[in-house]
Backbone:
């Protein structure tokens, strides 16, 4: 299997061309050379960079993969958090294979830029056969969004077979956390949670449902 080459997009060159400092921060997870199973969201994180003089530190994230690039998002992003939630879609066709991922992170305050002390990271991931593998995507909950596409609001409907804590969060297409929609113990029976997009720009969003061992992800399209 050929290794993915880490080619930096032109849109990031302006930040990466800034002077480098010797301040160190490190990538943390996933561990280098590890073999991991698919999950959502798949989180990559790093330690904070605290030595740059600017008030805000921006982290420049870049990911390369031997998997279908169109199924991985984001592959390039600039964030202020010390983590990145990466959406890795599973096509409904037989795969059940191991794919390579390489990633890098830089920190910048707009004046100085430094790469993570441990440089480029490398890990492999087992992509399951299809999205209906219930032992890999454990869910007996149907999370439905209506209307979808929507403007300016949509309702998420689901039903619980027993009282349990429910956590629902909204993410943008780059995997950035937008808002918490629910984080509470709910009774058994049907429930509805409203997603208010009046303050959000048009685009693709994801609502993530988690309760115990159950999880669900629904794609939302906001059209204004």
Residues:
């Amino acid at each position: 299997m050929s290794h993915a080459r880490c080619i930096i997009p032109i849109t990031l060159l302006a930040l990466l061309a800034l002077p480098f400092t010797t301040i160190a921060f490190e990538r943390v997870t996933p561990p280098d050379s590890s073999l991991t199973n698919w999950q959502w969201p798949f989180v990559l994180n790093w330690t904070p960079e605290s030595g740059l003089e600017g008030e805000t530190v921006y982290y420049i994230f870049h990911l390369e993969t031997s998997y279908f690039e169109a199924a991985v998002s984001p592959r390039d992003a600039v964030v202020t958090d010390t983590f990145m939630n990466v959406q890795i879609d599973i096509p409904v066709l037989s795969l059940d294979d191991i794919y390579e991922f390489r990633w890098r992170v830089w920190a910048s305050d707009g004046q100085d830029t430094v790469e993570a002390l441990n440089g480029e990271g490398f890990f492999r991931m087992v992509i399951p056969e299809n999205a209906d593998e219930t032992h890999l995507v454990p869910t007996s909950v149907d999370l439905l969004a209506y209307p979808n596409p929507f403007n300016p609001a949509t309702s998420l409907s689901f039903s619980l077979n027993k009282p349990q804590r429910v956590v629902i969060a909204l993410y943008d297409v780059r995997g950035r956390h937008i808002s918490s929609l629910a984080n509470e113990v709910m009774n058994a029976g049907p429930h509805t949670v409203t997603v208010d997009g009046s303050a959000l720009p048009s685009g693709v969003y994801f609502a993530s449902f988690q309760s115990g061992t159950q999880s669900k992800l629904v794609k939302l399209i906001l059209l204004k």
Q: What stands out?
A: The chain has two domains: 10-127, 144-222. The chain has a mean pLDDT of 79. The helical segments are 13-16.
